[in-house]
Amino acid sequence: MPNSTTTLDATDGLAFVKEVDQLGRSLTKVRDGVGKVIFGQQEVVDQTLVTVLAGGHALLIGVPGLAKTRLVETLGIILGLDDKRIQCTPDLMPADILGSEVLEEDADGKRSFRFIQGPVFTQLLMADEINRASPRTQSALLQAMQEHTVSIAGQTHRLPEPFHVLATQNPLEQEGTYPLPEAQLDRFLLQVSVGYPDEAAERAMLLATTGSQEVEVERILSGEQLLRAQKLLRRIPVGESVVDAILAIVRNGRPDSTDIDEVRRNVAWGPGPRASQALMLAIRARAVLDGRLAPSIDDVLALAHPVLRHRMALNFAARAEGVTLDSVIDRLCAPHR
Q: Which region among 132-136, 210-214, 263-267 has the lowest average model confidence (pLDDT)?
């Protein structure tokens, strides 16, 4: 079958298969390690791992108390990443995130500026309740998320690699919040919906977290290994039929060019080309996570919602009628099921 990557010769192909197989085994250990701490959120864990493997950022949306913070902390340990946390509030300033320059005087009386790094200089940054930060502070993350650099006083500072932002948002409380602008939402590879665990998972969590012993997790990967995995991911072949499905779903989500009446009637604006790129990377990561050498259309269908739901918006009439974005995305995916 034709694919979207360069054909490998036999020797390179065997080495590639071996690398992917080794990565798959390591990711199984990562999954198991996270599962010791996070209960009943396997889809959330998988989508977050997909985001990190694909080299992107994730927006986790869910009510308080669903282990979003715990998930980020656990991933930092297991993936061997330096992690930091920002609690976003309306009075949080850009310098509180990026850092600032201070004037210092040495023993000879000579004065100079020294840059003090902010918490963004880490490998895994958690921005808790990001929609509580002011628009000015939210925009301070834009350059960091897209370019992995920070500009302060005319100087550009590179961030550590790998660099990932995992932001959380509470969907219930809207008072005192600032909706994220479309430009920043588009920087998130996936929007992950965090729901309540089922009864069995909640029982296991209850017993595990109220006892005398605390579960400890160990490092399985390192930052260097994760970077190699991200580069390996981009070499995974994608079949032409899968590429066609990605393009059809994304392009049909645009009201000015769609063939679907429901989209034309209900969608105010649709996903841009970055959605196709995000879906292409995410399905490769999901395939590796499941121990497969190539993604399928099932991967596209499984990840269409988290990739698209923050890259589309309904018009006023659709919202008034109770139409949801998930139902529109279901309609986009229907021809490929």
A: 210-214
